[in-house]
UniProtKB/TrEMBL annotation:
InterPro entries: Thioredoxin-like_sf, Thioredoxin_domain. It comes from the Eukaryota. This is Thioredoxin-like 1-2. The lineage of its organism: Eukaryota, Viridiplantae, Streptophyta, Embryophyta, Tracheophyta. Pfam families: Thioredoxin (PF00085). It comes from Hibiscus syriacus (Rose of Sharon). GO terms for cellular component: chloroplast. Keywords: Disulfide bond, Electron transport, Redox-active center, Transport. One of its GO terms (biological process) is cell redox homeostasis. Residues 94-163 form the Thioredoxin domain.
């Protein structure tokens, strides 16, 4: 963070080297970091000038932060590049993207490969205005990235509508052709039936169990349907077990009656 230092200073207690002479010094002024600095007149006493000399120096400093220079992951961002700040924001953004192609870019501020690739990603975002690029800072959302099994940076995931995840891979500036080929393959406009799928249901459950996501705030009818199906299956298995037990008891009773 770049800060400018603004200082105001004053000097007091300048005395003459000769005690017999009482003399006023003219006011002094000069510039200190672009700010005028004035030294006012002081009355010099004739008593004990040679034995008691009080030279006081006081500096009052005030720091004011100026606007910091932009960090590399904040430069040259395009309108279709969106910063993601939470797991819930990522899930909702994917669901609201409709049929548009979504590219999730996982990066880290300390990753040299991410820094080198960033200008190229900005260019690709400008060349593909109908696509959406979600920027995920690994350092800020480390727990979420672990739930999504992101262990290599930079990393990319492609999503579209009801199809959900299309592909995922890692690439660097040397293998950027992989990213360009994926954009050429999936970047065409198309319509899909049904709502946007977004993250896999297993990933949603991981995020929920890790405390990164609240499923109650999301509309996930498929999860509810699967839960109901599991419940019906469990009930049917329990009932079949009871019927099997009843059949075994009836067979046992029939055998005992035949022996009588």
């Amino acid at each position: 963070m770049a800060c400018s230092l603004k200082c105001g200073s004053y000097f007091s207690g300048f005395t003459s080297s000769k005690a017999s002479t009482s003399k006023k010094f003219p006011p002094l002024s000069f510039d200190f970091l672009g700010k005028p600095l004035a030294v006012p007149d002081q009355k010099i006493g004739s008593r004990n000038c040679s034995t008691k000399r009080e030279n006081k120096f006081s500096v009052q400093a005030e720091t004011a932060c100026v606007s910091r220079s932009m960090r590399w992951w904040e430069k040259n961002l395009k309108p279709n590049m969106v910063k993601i700040h939470s797991a819930e924001e990522l899930v909702c953004s994917l669901q609201n993207a409709g049929d548009r192609l979504v590219i999730i870019v996982f990066y880290s501020p300390g990753c040299g490969g991410c820094k080198a690739l960033h200008p190229k990603i900005c260019q690709l975002a400008e060349q593909n205005p109908n696509s959406i690029f979600f920027e995920v800072n690994y350092e800020e959302l480390k727990n979420m990235c672990h739930c999504l099994n992101i262990h290599v940076l930079p990393f990319f995931r492609f999503y579209r509508g009801a199809e959900g995840r299309l592909c995922s891979f890692s690439c660097t500036i040397a293998t950027i052709k992989k990213l360009k080929n994926a954009l050429a393959k999936h970047g065409y406009n198309r319509c899909s039936l049904g709502p946007a799928k977004g993250l896999d249901e297993s990933e949603l459950m991981k995020l929920a169990s890790a405390g990164e996501l609240s499923l109650s705030s999301l509309q996930l009818p498929s999860l509810k349907e699967e839960a109901m199906q599991d419940l019906v299956m469990m009930r049917s298995m329990e009932l079949s077990g009871l019927f099997d037990k009843a059949d075994n008891n009836r067979t046992k009773v029939e055998k005992e009656c035949a022996l009588l």
